[in-house]
Amino acid sequence: MGELYAWQDALWQRWIELRTRLPHAILLKGPQGIGKLDFAMNLTRSLLCKKSLGSELACQGCTSCHWFEQGTHPDFRLLLSGSQSLEMQESSATQTSSILKNWTKNIAEEVLDEQQKKGKKPSKEISVHQVRSLANFINLSTHQGGHRVVLIYPAETMNTNAANALLKTLEEPPERMLIILVSHKPQQLLPTIVSRCLTLVAPMPSLEASAAWLQLQKYVDPVAILARASFAPLLAARLAEETVGDVEYNIFLQEIRQPAQFDVFALAEKLQRIEPFHVIHWLQQWCYDLSSSILTGKVRYHPDLTDLIQNLSNNVAIFNLLRYQNELIIAKREALHPLNPKLLFESILLSYRHMMLEADK
Ligand SMILES: [Zn+2]
């Protein structure tokens, strides 16, 4: 527990070099589902550990390590949205997930409480209130005489006010304080925030490394589940556990291959329990394979449907396909805000059918 992933060795070396002249803020960026948060947690724990000698992982035996595992270390703060805290309570696939559960337990309970009382959906944003509540922590001197760490995950979920509040802290960084921003979508962060951080790029693991890790976690068909998750191993493990989505994904794949026949409204209804984000992601992968089939003759995400995709793509104009893919990018951005998923699905599926049939004429 708490070991590094095999593909993070070089990144850890980079961190060791940095440790001798610690920056005030680090931006750790890379695609979702490749272990960035685990890396940031390992980095934090080693920095707070009483026995780690700078180049090593945390000892896991000292009082500091013990507090960190229990989710009670006084020199660490974890900032995340309500919905993220709930997700962490359910996750079991990652190497620091048991520690993260301890750190997010209270937040998740509060969110559930509030949800029951007010019927509100858990927020997907980090609020300005959350960032401001760091003020006491930042202004106090360190409890253990060592470093203090704030970890923000994922940093792009800070709303504008929250980001501006954080900027003030970054402009006057306190002594011996490290702020770590972990981000799947750094392009959504304020440029003024990015410019005050030292950027670390988390590496994407090779297909072999990802498959080997999933095999160790006892997943039977690693390559197939990786293909569904843009080849990000942790995301693959999570999606493989979400059996609810499996049924819908198969329905989606059955319908989407017959653009002339499928009932848009019936399909939208069947998909309405799935997070819009996932459905758009499925469509993106499907369209990626259609365009890839036109441009290179190969498919990436649906290797078992190569012939079928090839046939379908023969009738599609590449320009229409690219335009539709753009539409999906915009839809994905909007899918983060609460709306009626069924209406959204209807709109993007109608648009899909239109695009697929247009070239027939
Ligand atoms: Zn220790």
Give an account of the 3D structure.
The protein has helices at 9-19, 36-48, 63-70, 82-90, 97-118, 128-132, 135-139, 160-171, 191-194, 207-216, 222-228, 233-241, 243-256, 264-271, 276-296, 306-313, 318-334, 341-358, and strands at residues 25-29, 76-79, 148-152, 177-183, 198-201. The protein has 361 residues and is α/β, with parallel strands linked by helices. The protein folds into 2 domains: 6-201, P-loop containing nucleotide triphosphate hydrolases (Rossmann fold), CATH 3.40.50.300; 242-358, Zinc Finger, Delta Prime, domain 3 (Up-down Bundle). A 5-stranded parallel beta sheet has the order 2-3-4-1-5, with helices on one face. α10 crosses α12 (233-241), α11 (222-228) packs across α12 (233-241) and α15 packs across α16 (306-313).
Bound ligand species: zinc ion
Number of strands: 5
Question: Going by CATH, what is the homologous superfamily of the largest domain?
Answer: P-loop containing nucleotide triphosphate hydrolases
Distance between the termini: 58 Å
Shape type: globular
- Please state the CA-atom Rg, rounded to the nearest Å: 22 Å
Helix content estimate: 55-70%
Q: Helix/strand-derived class?
A: alpha/beta
> Averaging pLDDT over every residue, what do you get?
89
Number of domains: 2
Largest sheet: 5 strands, parallel
The CATH topology of the largest domain is given as Rossmann fold
- What is the CATH C-level name of the largest domain? Alpha Beta
Major sheet strand order: 2-3-4-1-5
The helix/strand series, from N terminus to C terminus, equals: HEHHEHHHHEHEHEHHHHHHHHH
Strand content: 5-15%
Enumerate how many helices there are, as a single number. Answer: 18
CATH architecture of the largest domain, by name, is 3-Layer(aba) Sandwich
Instruction: Report low-confidence residues grouped into runs of 5 or more.
Output: none
